Here is the input.
Amino acid sequence: MIITIDTESSLVHVTGAAGAQEYPLFSPDAFEILSRQWMVLGWNLGHWSTFSWKGRQLLQFPDDVLRLGEALWRLRPDVIVETGVYDGGSTLFFAGWCRHVIPIERQFRPGVREAIFQGADILVTPIEADSSAPETASLAESLIRPGSRVCVFLDSDHSARHVRAELENLSPLVSPGCYVIVADSNLPELANAPKGERAWRSDHPGRAVDEFLAGHPEFLRERPTPLFSTEFDFTGLSYFPMTWLKRRER
Here is the structure.
C-alpha cells in the first residue's frame, strides 16, 4: 500500500489492492488510515514503552490506559486479576481502581514485588505461577471474597494457545456485567513491522478470543462506550480494540 499526504490540497491518496482512492485529509477515513500506520510505526519505535505509573514502567498504549480507567470507574470492581506484570506499573495502575489486585507472573523480576507493595495503597496478593494453569486460577479464586465484583486483564504470553487456556481458566472469576480484557490483540497488524514476527499473522490473542467466544455464550464482545464522544468513534485507536469480553448479566 502506498499512502501520499498532500497538505497543499488537503488530500490523502491511497494506492493498494483495491486500486487508487482519495480522501479529504481532515476526514474520518483519513484519520483511520493514517492512525493505523502511526500506531504500527509507534509500536516499532517503542512509543508504548516510554510510559510509567508511580515510577514503574507501564508498557501500555496511552489511549488504552485512559479507556481502562474510564471503564473501571464505571464498573467499580472489588478485585482485578492481572496476568503479565513485568515492572509493576500496570499493577499499580489497577490498584487505583479497586480494593484488591491479584497480579500473576511466571517469575517476578527482582524488586518488582517490593515496589508494588510500596506503591499500592490497597491489598495486593502476587501469585508467581503459570497464568494458564488451572491450579493458578484455583489459587486466585481462593483469594477472592464471595460476592466480590471481579474483572480480569490478560497481558502475559500472547500466543493463542496460552491466551485460550487463560480464558478458559480465569474467565469463570469474572462477575456478571464485568469484563475479561485481552491485551495486544493487534499483533497481526504488527507482523510486518521490522520488529514484528510473521507468526503473529495467525498466532495471536484475537484468535484465542474468537475460539473462546464460539463456545462461551455467557460472554459477548462489547467495548464500553466512552462517556464523552463525537460523531467519530476513536475507540479503535487501541492495541486491543475488539477483545473486551463482557460477562452477560444473569
About this structure: The first helix runs from residue 28 to 45. Helices lie at 28-45, 62-75, 89-94, 112-119, 134-142, 160-170, 187-190, 205-214.
